[in-house]
Amino acid sequence: MxxxxxxxxxxxxxxxxxxxxxxxxxxxxxxxxxxxEYLDFFTGAGxxxxxxxxxxxVEGMIDYLRSGGILNSLDTxxxxxxxxxxxxADHILGPRGMSYRVQFTGPAGTTAVEAxxxxxxxxxxxxxxVHLSGSYHGMTRDSIGVSGLxxxxxxxxxxxxxxxxxxxxxxxxxxRAAEELERAFTAPGSTPPAAFIVETVQGEGGVxxxxxxxxxxxxxLCRAHGTLLVVDDVQAGCGRTGPxxxxxxxxxxxxxxxxxxSLSGVGLPMGLVLIRPSLDVWDPGEYSGTFRGNNLAFVTAxxxxxxxxxxGALRRSVSQRSxxxxxxxxxxxxxxxxxxxxxxxxxxxxxxxxxRHVADLVSTLAFAQGLLVETCGRRGEVVKxxxxxxxxxxxVEVALQILEHVTDxxxxxxxxxxxxxxxx
Length: 424
Ligand code: PMP
What we know:
Blueprint: H1 3-7, H2 14-17, E1 22-26, E2 29-32, E3 37-40, H3 43-46, H4 55-66, H5 79-93, E4 101-104, H6 109-124, E5 129-132, H7 141-145, E6 162-165, H8 174-186, E7 195-198, E8 201-202, E9 208-209, H9 212-225, E10 228-232, E11 256-259, E12 272-275, H10 295-308, H11 313-334, E13 343-345, E14 348-352, H12 356-368, E15 371-372, E16 374-376, E17 382-385, H13 393-413
Parallel strand pairs: 3-15, 5-6, 5-7, 7-10, 10-11
Antiparallel strand pairs: 1-2, 2-3, 4-12, 8-9, 11-12, 13-14, 14-17, 16-17
The site of 4'-deoxy-4'-aminopyridoxal-5'-phosphate has 15 residues, from helix 6.
C-alpha cells in the first residue's frame, strides 16, 4: 500500500480515475513517474487554459522568487498586485468599455461565488437567489445552496431563499421555459430576487450552453425587477469559450462576474469578483481573510494577460482550434447510437453518452491510451473536453484518434439496451 492509500482521505477522487503518479508536464503533455506521456484534455479542471508550465509564466515566477518579492500580502498593496490590476484594466476592462471594480476573494471559484451571493444580498437588501437546474457553483455552503446538481451529504437540505428555474436542457418547450423564468421573479407574495446566478455554459452540469436568447431574457427580467445578474465565469471564463469573458458574445452586461480557475494561467489558486461600481457597498474588511493576495499568482496572471490578451489573436484561434475538434467529435458520435452530437462552445466541449457507465468507460479507456478526459453531467453521462487553448492541430488529431478507438472498444463491450435517452 502506498502513502496515498495509507494516509490520504477517502475523499480523493481524480487519482481514482487516473491511478498513476504524474510528475512533470509541458503544454498539453503530462508525464508520469514511469515515463508514460498523456495528452491532457482536462487541464486541471480548466485551470490551465494556456497549458502546463508555459515558459513565459514559469520564468516570471522564477524571476519574482529570485527578486525576494512578497508572496502573501493579505490585501496590502504590492507592485505585483498593482501591475496585475493595471493590465486587467488596460487589456480586458478598458477595451470592452467595462468599469468593474475588483474584489479579491479567497483563492477558489467557490469563494468568489460566496462573495458574489453575499454582496448581492447586502446591495439589494433581499435574500432570494435564482439559479438554473444543472448549475454548479462550488462546494462551500452558499455555493452549494445555489447549485442545481443536488446537495452533497452533510449539508442541511433547506438552505433558505433559493429558487430553481429549469435550464433549457430540462425544459424543451420554449413557452413553459419562459413562464417558469418569469414566475421566479414575480411569484405572488414574494419579494423579487436579490440575484440571478448563471453559467453561460454549464460546466459540471454536462457542458450545456445557456442560449443567448435565454441569457438576454434573464438580463431583461433582472433589470425590470432590480435583481442583480451574476455570471459565474469560473469555468467558462478566461478564454475557454473564445472571448476572455464568456458572455461577451451574448451581449449581456452582468452586475457581478466570478472568475478563478485559469486566471493565474499556471494553476496557482486565485479568485476574484468583478463588481459594477455602484454595487461596491462592502464596508472595509467586511469580507476578509488571510489569502487575498497571492502575489505569485498576480505575477503570472499579469503575464498571461499581456501574453495572450493584448489583442484578439487567442480568441480567434480558439474558434479555429475548436472547429476540427467539434467536427471530429460529431463524426465519432455518428458511429454509435449511444453517443449524441457534441455540445459546448469554443474549447469547452462535451460528448454526451447514454449513461454514466459508458462515459466512465470512455474516460478509463482513454487514460489507458494516453488521453486525459473527465466526465460531467446531470447523471455523469457526458465526456468533457477542456484542452489547453494553445492545443495544436496534431494534438487534436491524436485525441480524436484515441476517442474513436476507445468508443469502438466501448461499443464492443456495451451491454445491450443502453441507448441514448431521447432528452439528449
Ligand atoms: N463555479 C463553476 C462554474 C465551476 O465550474 C466551479 C468548479 N468546477 C466552481 C464554481 C468552484 O470552483 P472551485 O472548485 O475552485 O471552488
